């Protein structure tokens, strides 16, 4: 049975494709999920892809990934810059974690330059749009295989 990579998406990512396409592109969340599934399949991994606008639900899923997943990719959306609760949950995770963002957060408003999530991540991929998700799957698969 293939090992499972959890991919968790935070608030407003359900609006991809219509929300600020000049920043986030025109791909939908379903498009990103399809990209991730294709890439993971090629690397012999399964994907559990989820999105929530609720911080507590994301924390619950992080805790689930801790015991059921081989690794975790997280785009926490705005919670990236505010959620110590998510950081605490991620730090309790004993699986490799990759943080991903569609836009380059360092070219945007100053409040977006700080990420709480990064403190728990093996690496960060930002600024490559939907390709960043594929790169995150590849990087995470490599980290899992090396462990």
What key phrases describe this protein's structure?
alpha/beta, five-stranded parallel β-sheet, 147 residues, Rossmann fold
Describe how the helices and strands are arranged.
Layout: E1 3-9, H1 21-24, H2 29-42, E2 45-51, H3 55-68, E3 71-75, H4 84-91, E4 97-101, E5 123-126, H5 131-146
Parallel strand pairs: 1-2, 1-3, 3-4, 4-5
Helix pairs in contact: 2-5, 3-4
Textual characterization of the structure:
By secondary structure, the chain is an alpha/beta fold. It has a single domain (3-146), classed as Dehydroquinase, class II (Rossmann fold), CATH 3.40.50. The chain has five helices and five strands. It has helices at residues 21-24, 29-42, 55-68, 84-91, 131-146; strands at 3-9, 45-51, 71-75, 97-101, 123-126. Strands 2-1-3-4-5 form a five-stranded parallel β-sheet, sandwiched between helices. Strand 3 (71-75), helix 4 and strand 4 form a beta-alpha-beta unit.
Put the structure in a nutshell.
By secondary structure, this protein is of the alpha/beta class. It contains 5 helices and 5 strands; from the N terminus they run βααβαβαββα. It has one domain: Dehydroquinase, class II (Rossmann fold, 3-Layer(aba) Sandwich), CATH 3.40.50.9100.
